[in-house]
């Protein structure tokens, strides 16, 4: 999903850069408001973690490949805003040092991977977990679905951004100037590849990470104190 | 924290697994691939292609001019993993330090 320079034309890449600016500013503001100094090393670790996860390319039938991003887990544990910051940092270095993802497309790549994934994942996670205890099985299921959905939805967004290029920007004789394939190709390709393969990895990463953290380090979870007490502990106390 | 660092080390050691997949991701093809498949390269794409990536120090997570076999790509991939983690970790740590001021004993936590 790291769109290289040339796949999006300026009619798309400029607005995508522009909308990221207020998003980055707001994410920075929320990180400052919601996170504590104890979470700073976790933020650093999260960014590095996302980077490493993205190095595990998964081959799929048809010859293509892709990867999970890990930002669903970051969104759930440290907040979607922290995920926006951490993943944007990872994407920046991937672009500048490794040439993975273009500079014109950096805004769009951040929107898809650093924003859509963690925000969509967090919403799904909250909807499914409800008020269950932090170690409940339902939360683990919520994490899996959240990870799967976040990455799949982000892939659909990227597919959409690419797929509109031929209609949006072409020569006077109709020849595409940027991504040459239309929505009928890009959206199914992106959605199926992710839904059946890479998003499964994202789901697994999200569950495994949350499983460990919720049972061993729950106080680092950014919204842990905001209401969802550990019901199993409360029940034990009440019973004794 | 120790567990997380250990997990990161395991992940970094395992990165060459990511080299097994050799196909390009959808929409990340080299212009030459488009030329082969479609018979042309869209002119806007051609113009912007490699805008920065041709100057990247570790292009495609490896050394420039390394071979394309698994063994030839592994050392560069390890270097990329370590360089990436260190640079990204430091940058995110710096960003976090600049942004986050609330201490853990603050009442409103």
Explain what you see.
The complex is a heterodimer of chains A (240) and B (109). Chain A has a single domain, classed as Arp2/3 complex 21 kDa subunit ARPC3. In chain A, a hairpin with a 5-residue loop joins β1 and β2. The model of chain A has no long low-confidence stretch (mean pLDDT 94). Chain A has nine helices and two strands. Chain A has a two-stranded antiparallel sheet with strand order 1-2. In chain A, α3 packs antiparallel against α4 and α4 packs antiparallel against α5. With 240 residues, chain A is mainly α. By secondary structure, chain B is mainly α. Chain B is extended, with a radius of gyration of 20 Å. Among the domains of chain B are: 26 residues, no CATH class; 41 residues. Chain B is built from four helices and no strands.
Low-confidence stretches of chain B: none
Overall shape of chain B: extended
Strand order of the largest sheet of chain A: 1-2
Give the structural class of chain A: mainly alpha
Helix content of chain A: 55-70%
N-to-C span of chain A: 53 Å
- Rounded to the nearest angstrom, the distance between the terminal CA atoms of chain B is 21 Å
How many separate domains make up the residues of chain A? 1
CATH top level of chain A?
Mainly Alpha
Count of DSSP strands of chain A: 2
Percentage of β-strand residues of chain A: under 5%
Output the structural class of chain B.
mainly alpha
Please tell me how large the radius of gyration of chain A is: 19 Å
Low-confidence stretches of chain A: none
């Amino acid at each position: 999903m790291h769109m290289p320079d040339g796949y999006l034309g300026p009619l798309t890449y400029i607005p995508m850069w522009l909308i990221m600016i207020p998003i980055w500013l707001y994410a920075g503001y929320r990180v400052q408001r919601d996170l504590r100094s104890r979470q700073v090393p976790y933020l650093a670790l999260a960014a590095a973690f996302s980077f490493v996860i993205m190095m595990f390319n998964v081959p799929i039938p048809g010859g293509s490949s892709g990867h999970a991003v890990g930002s669903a887990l970051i969104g759930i544990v440290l907040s979607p805003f922290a995920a926006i910051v951490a993943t944007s940092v990872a994407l920046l270095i991937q672009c500048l040092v490794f040439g993975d993802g273009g500079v014109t497309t950096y805004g769009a790549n951040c929107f898809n991977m650093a924003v859509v994934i963690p925000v969509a994942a967090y919403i799904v996670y909250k909807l499914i977990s409800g008020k269950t205890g932090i170690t409940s099985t339902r939360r683990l299921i919520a994490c899996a679905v959240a990870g799967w959905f976040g990455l799949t939805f982000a892939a659909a967004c990227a597919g959409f951004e690419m797929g509109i290029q031929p209609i949006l920007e072409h020569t006077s004789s109709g020849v595409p100037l940027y991504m040459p394939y239309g929505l009928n190709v890009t959206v199914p390709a992106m959605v199926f590849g992710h839904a059946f393969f890479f998003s499964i990895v994202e789901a697994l990463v999200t569950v495994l990470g949350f499983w460990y953290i919720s049972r061993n380090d729950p106080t680092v979870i950014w919204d842990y104190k905001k209401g969802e007490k550990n019901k199993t502990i409360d029940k034990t106390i009440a019973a004794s | 924290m120790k567990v997380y660092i250990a997990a990161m080390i395991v992940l970094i050691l395992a990165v060459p697994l990511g080299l097994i997949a050799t196909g390009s991701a959808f929409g990340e093809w080299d212009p030459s691939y488009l030329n082969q498949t479609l018979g042309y390269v869209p002119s806007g794409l051609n113009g912007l292609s490699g805008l920065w990536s041709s100057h990247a120090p570790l292009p495609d997570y490896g050394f420039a001019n390394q071979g394309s076999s698994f063994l030839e790509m592994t050392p560069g991939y390890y270097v990329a993993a370590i360089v990436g983690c260190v640079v990204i970790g430091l940058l995110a740590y710096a960003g976090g330090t600049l942004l986050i001021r609330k201490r853990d004993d603050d009442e409103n936590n």
